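Q&A log
Question type: sequence-to-structure
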Amino acid sequence: MSKAVSRIPSSTLTSLLPRALNPHFAVVDLVATHLAAAADDADEAKPVDLARLLPYLGHDELTAVVLRAGHSHPLPTLRFLLAVPPSIQPSPQHFAFLAHSLASSRHFSHALDALSHLARLHPGHDALPTLLFASPTAPHPSLPGLLVKALLRHARLRDAFRAALRAAAAGAPPDAAAFNALLAALSRAGRFDELWAARAAMVRAGVRPDARTFNTLVAALCREEDAERAQGFLEELEEQGFEPDVVTYNTLLAGYCRRGRLQDALRLFDVMPHRRVPPDLVSHTILMDGLCKAWRLNDARRMFDRMVQSGLCPDAVVYSVLITGYCNEGRLREARSLLMEMVGSGVSAVAFALKIVIEGHAKVGKLLTCLNMVAPLRKCGVVIPSQGYSCLIGALCDDMRPNAARGLLQWMVEDGHSPRLQMYNMIVDCFCRCDNPKEALDVKAEMISREVKPDYDTYQALITCLCRLGRSLDGQSVMLEMIQSGSQPNEAICAALVCGFCKEGDPDRAELIVKSFVLDFHIHCNESYNALMRTYCETRSTAESLALQDRMLELGFVPNSETCRSIIYGLSKGLG
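Response status: OK
Response body:
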């Protein structure tokens, strides 16, 4: 009898208990009481001990909690649902009910969060019917729109589009804000057929569009590269009583300029004041950029001057557009002058414009002029951007001026930048190409002190330079440091060391290098093998050369045409 009872599930046994003694009813009462207390005083409410309640929490208990507390205390209930473990994951109906209660309480952002969690935890669920029938009363009018926004939040554009059209057809359309978000997302994705279908559903459902709606539609037409249709659409809207704002006109201006229809853009720009929409800073910037790209820089400058005279204050974007135009045409003096005017006017965001000017000077090799511009700017408190420093350092290294590049590196550190490994490597390599390994080694020590770890390029430049200058022992020491740092040498470093020792008349040490690379790194460098054989054949006896060849064969080297020429030369020298 006891064995039969033990096989009865515990849930069946607890269901036989009176309500007052049933732990499943007790846990619902406990959680609901806690949520009510949390809603009344969030600071003093104690958290629910979920670990203790887990054996008695299931889907039915969650549903009972939502029905009891979700209507009057929806926000604490939502937080409770999000805290339960995945094993008892809340259902779509739970989130939909709470979204309805939160929207009815005008907690729209939290209702959006609830629907967002529904979309995240149940990605395959069709949420619209669940949402429309989650409450015995009519669904709150904001819910379809909030669902569309929640789906867009999770990049489910197709689901958001279908939900919007189905909700509109069901007589519960999303609001204008939700439709606007959907139209903008469809436009960005280039899904223009669906965009106009959503626009038609919006009209059929009687959702009143606003300025953002029309601006999004005009922008979509311009993205379709149909600025002419956009102009016609705008005139149609004006006939219907819609008054385009400056954003609408700027969208059209950008569309015309993007398609190279600059004259149409200029005509529209001239029409704007007559339609009581004065061009703003963005309008001028769009046209100035179009003029610069059409190589009409003088016209762009005249527009800039007229804009300033009209009382508009240029920002960093306006200055950058014109400065870029000057640099593209090689008019660097005017670019520098405008940059100084920009700094003097108090515009703070000068980094991009300054980078453009530096790159323009570096491109044509006017490095001294650029340095003479940068130095006083630093004294005025202007922080040179790291990209500008990188460009200048690279140009100076290409011009074989490593000391100037190193000075710029110090300026960079003083300005609060952290030079990257690539910049240090450029300077190390430049010093090495200038046969100045002492300074190159100093730069390596400096980068290590600033916690920038040298890499293979750093070590190869140093080792190659030292071996070329007859300091192969120092090169070997650098290679040992390289190995200790965790980097593994390759054939190029092996060849540099072997050729260096051979050139210095120490082929025995060169042979040790070859042997070490084979045994320690499994690298068979044919260039090193040939250089060593050539040195032996030129400086040692035929017997020694042939003995070396035997040792090389044991290491796995295979003779090639150059090896054979060296051996033949050694044999002929011996016979002579």
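Response note: The two ends are 114 Å apart (CA to CA).
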